[in-house]
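Subject: Sanity check before I submit

Could someone independently write out the structure tokens for this chain? I want to compare against mine line by line before I put it in a report. The sequence has 117 residues.
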Amino acid sequence: MKKEPIMLSKKITRPKQFKVAKVVEGIGEERHILKLFITGISPHSARAVINSKAICEKYLKGRYELEIIDIYQQPLLAVSEDIIAVPVLIKKFPLPEERLIGDLSDTDKALKELHLV
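---
Independent answer below. Compare away.
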């Protein structure tokens, strides 16, 4: 009895279709991702929130994501980011990552240190 040769076949798949991205304001411009770590509602933290929002609206309008993290409510995020002092603003993107400790009341220093403009 003669055995039939085993035929291996390769499954041919069609390339996946990609959805077209929605047109958004500021497309083609660099988007900034920022995280502000604070401690509750202390005056120092409140100033940091107000100042960071003002800087973002004035210099990065429509091109930023600002996440405000209270380390009392989310301590594991502070640990994962190696936070040693608060308030601290971390610029995650565009690289390089930069950190600025304080309430961001010195706008010129904040812009220079975080390479925002």
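---
OP: Matches mine. For the report I'm noting this point. Residues 49 and 85 are 15 Å apart (CA to CA).
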